[in-house]
Amino acid sequence: MTDLPKKELFSLPEGVIYLDGNSLGPLPRKARARAAQVIDAEWGQELIKAWNTADWIGLPKQVGDRIGGLVGAPEGTIATGDTLSIKVYQALAAALKMRLDRKVILSDSGNFPSDLYMAEGLIETIDKGLELRTPAPEAVLEAITDEVAVVMLTQVDYRTGRMHDMQALTRAAHAAGAVMIWDLAHSAGAVPVDLMASEAEFAVGCTYKYLNGGPGAPAFIYVRPDLIETVEPALSGWMGHDAPFAMERHYRPAMTTERLRIGTPPIVQLSILEEAMNIWEGVDMAEIRAASIELSELFIREIEARCPDLTLASPRDPQQRGSQVSFAFDNSYPAMQALIAHDVIGDFRAPDIMRFGFTPLYLDADDIRVAAGRIERVFRDGLWRDPAYQTRSRVT
Amino acid sequence: MTDLPKKELFSLPEGVIYLDGNSLGPLPRKARARAAQVIDAEWGQELIKAWNTADWIGLPKQVGDRIGGLVGAPEGTIATGDTLSIKVYQALAAALKMRLDRKVILSDSGNFPSDLYMAEGLIETIDKGLELRTPAPEAVLEAITDEVAVVMLTQVDYRTGRMHDMQALTRAAHAAGAVMIWDLAHSAGAVPVDLMASEAEFAVGCTYKYLNGGPGAPAFIYVRPDLIETVEPALSGWMGHDAPFAMERHYRPAMTTERLRIGTPPIVQLSILEEAMNIWEGVDMAEIRAASIELSELFIREIEARCPDLTLASPRDPQQRGSQVSFAFDNSYPAMQALIAHDVIGDFRAPDIMRFGFTPLYLDADDIRVAAGRIERVFRDGLWRDPAYQTRSRVT
């Protein structure tokens, strides 16, 4: 039995109920000491030697293996670094090389825009008449035809929390001869994922949400073990070379997943991420999932009972949801500003969505009830109408 | 008159002479406090709000403008983020889009391998018969023909310190109708660079060498002002979108250099980099250059007088060198290990090069003389023959 919640391992501002760990996870208490260690003792004292003495060079793999433990990826199948958008591009370019006879990339209209933008950029770069199709999420299954080279989906919808059936869609993709890429941005650390069982060729994800790696923490990419030695990295940087320091004239990819590394890894952020991953030690994702469902069901009951103006924008069936609940409201932007001012932090997503994330590592049922009370007051008293909440910030 | 050296602004290990700032710059004293501020006060207390309240969203541009001040790039022409390899890919892909009628990418055999590897990966991705040519550095000028779409060169050779003539080569590239990309990895903060005067279309660089941004600090990319509104980013992520938070279905690039941003920026590392850039405030690159030449000339004189077994592998004319001096020696690997053990830190580059970087911000003539004395002893007494120095580390 996991010892949940692990709230005391996080530094959370006094009085705040943080329901936005699906956007930026909170600060692990040990992150600062680890950063200080890396900065003062490793960088400051060891200088260039730290690549060996502090094993900076091995850090990306170590962290990747830790992430793998949460998403059903065997040791050595996950490379870390860069940003999620870069890893999407890399997975997509590699997948397209596996199906050169086909011209269609299939995603859905609910996918996170950056994934679709990266696909558009790749299509422009290749410039051979590739086509990106984005049917509604509900219509994806039937859109998987034998024209499709790659199916690229985000498992949990960033707006609504709706969750795709990873097994069924991967099976359908393979039955149609397509390569499957899963974006786990809202899955890793949120819901149980079994990448090996899914048989998907690729997965990508970010680590600053449910994994609490900090703002701009590095991303990850998974490749199915049987493909490791043949996958083409597309973004073929020296850190993916079989012998980076031999300074060979031609690229020769590593015979491990490290071939999907590109440039010099961001050591400070990777170290903080590793510290954040320590919190997951011994945590059972099935237990996280059960607790998350309990919290989100409680939240929906409370909000629907207290706030009649809000409309549930997430699937009602918890099995169809990730670890977030969204409500639609015409004035969601000022409403979320008002909630934040009243110490319930969620976020707004255009056009009219308020998102709330459920993270059992540091949230319990009491938090949800307190949050619901505060939310009720903001809507009951129309506090969101305050002019202070109407002006849009640069980041919404 | 700049107040050089600024040694007291860096935290350097007692007794060590650090001649490897061309590989990883040392720790600015204020970096840890800045990291603690970002981690504890911004991430910890402000959480997701820090994107606005701490202006995380504006940080990449602010840092870019600071870098611009050192390389002759006007405000708003440099985007930061990712790694140098990624920025090389992005510049190259964008440049190729500007010369679709041509098939040749021209670089040189002395370019940093990762730049060439990224070009190879892009060529594979585009798969339309593009060709990468890598003549010897001395033969590049005559290899610029009207077949060449893009000339992509690193100004200062990572092995030898040999410096290309940026003006002459850019002029030749343009005369042949080619697009020019400069990699400033060993130039930014090392030698005076005037990007605007060069008229080059693109430049890229890293910030963990002479700019002292820390291990894995973010990279930068410059685009000539007249091209900003038309350049195709290729790696088209949401942070380069004109309205990232509008979550539009299609990519629509920002009408600023920010279009070359890709994913979520690494806030902790960017903040440390910004702190490192503060040290450059009021520093005149002409003065840095004069001091660097003084130091490197002194070093060459001392080493040639004291160590007859070493052969200068850098141009003897300081105007032909960047801010590093390399010596060739058959047993450079163990020799460099011995030097490091005797508190003179440089680095080894395959096959037989010992590199020493000159960084007047924190080095003076006394340091060079002390280093020369230690180096003399290692070679005079054959200390490098010690078996302890023969085993290769993972990072050489």
Automatic annotation (TrEMBL), chains A, B:
InterPro entries documented for this protein: Kynureninase, PyrdxlP-dep_Trfase, PyrdxlP-dep_Trfase_major, PyrdxlP-dep_Trfase_small
Residue intervals passing through the bilayer: none
GO biological process, one term: anthranilate metabolic process
UniProt entry keywords in alphabetical sequence: Hydrolase, Pyridine nucleotide biosynthesis, Pyridoxal phosphate
Pfam family, one: KYNU_C
This protein's pathway: Cofactor biosynthesis; NAD(+) biosynthesis; quinolinate from L-kynurenine: step 2/3; Amino-acid degradation; L-kynurenine degradation; L-alanine and anthranilate from L-kynurenine: step 1/1
GO cellular component, as recorded: cytoplasm
GO molecular function (one): pyridoxal phosphate binding
E.C. number(s) listed in UniProt: 3.7.1.3
Family per similarity comment: Belongs to the kynureninase family.
Functional note: Catalyzes the cleavage of L-kynurenine (L-Kyn) and L-3-hydroxykynurenine (L-3OHKyn) into anthranilic acid (AA) and 3-hydroxyanthranilic acid (3-OHAA), respectively.
Complex formation: Homodimer.
Protein name in UniProt: Kynureninase
Lineage: Bacteria, Pseudomonadati, Pseudomonadota, Alphaproteobacteria, Rhodobacterales
